[in-house]
Amino acid sequence: MSKVATRFPLAQAMPWAQAAANACADLSSAVHIAGSIRRQRDEVGDIDLVVLDDGENPWLRQQIGMRLAVEGYRQTKDGEHIATFTREGTPSLDLYYATPDTWGITMLVRTGSAAHNIKLTQVARRMLPVRQLKVSRGIVDTADRVIASRTEEEIFAALGTPFVRPEDREAPEYESWIREDGE
């Protein structure tokens, strides 16, 4: 039997996301809400935050974990680039750690939508072998050098596509762009 994910109205999830971001804000120079909340979806299944880990604070992850524990969260996953927290009655909280060099690609991928990410990957594949999209690194050239990853805007530009605002990434006209050419 599959587990049915609980969805929460955006208006209910937004304050939880903001409170989690605020709890971490003075520990990092950048903490941003991503995912379906950033896209302004009517309902969300989880809270996604991207935290800048610039290497300046060697205790950043432990401090964030302690802050969120005070807020009632329990850590359930601790990976190299992601930590997951749960709290009764709220969506799960996924923290994605990015460096200054991976900030843009992390925000882009973690904001989504899934269809948006698939389309950008398809666009990048058409540029092979000159350029390639690597989800963890950004746009790379044939020598495996990163040419775009620091901002979302530079990634779109490197792919030769217009920037799409997060809240427009699931608009009907954007979804038709996803399905063009029978894809």
What's a quick, concise take on this entry?
This protein is an alpha+beta fold.
Percent of residues in helices comes to 25-40%
The termini sit apart by 31 Å
CATH architectural label of the largest domain:
2-Layer Sandwich
What overall form do the CA principal axes indicate?
Answer: globular
Number of separate domains: 2
Number of helices: 7
- CATH fold annotation of the largest domain: Beta Polymerase, domain 2
Proportion of residues in β-strands: 15-25%
Supply database-style keywords.
5-stranded mixed β-sheet; Beta Polymerase, domain 3; 7 helices; 10 strands; alpha+beta; Beta Polymerase, domain 2; 183 residues; 3-stranded antiparallel β-sheet; 2 domains
Task: Give structural notes.
- The protein is an alpha+beta fold.
- It has 2 domains: 8-98, Beta Polymerase, domain 2; 103-182, Beta Polymerase, domain 3 (2-Layer Sandwich).
- Helices cover 37% and strands 23% of the residues.
- It has helices at 10-25, 35-38, 60-70, 103-111, 114-126, 152-158, 172-178; strands spanning 8-9, 31-33, 43-44, 46-52, 74-78, 82-86, 92-98, 131-134, 138-141, 146-148.
- Strands 2-4-7-6-5 form a 5-stranded mixed β-sheet, with helices on both faces. The protein has a 3-stranded antiparallel β-sheet with strand order 8-9-10.
- Strand 5 (74-78) and strand 6 (82-86) form a beta hairpin.
- Helix 4 (103-111) packs across helix 6 (152-158).
- The longest helix is centred in the N-terminal third of the chain and has 16 residues, at 10-25.
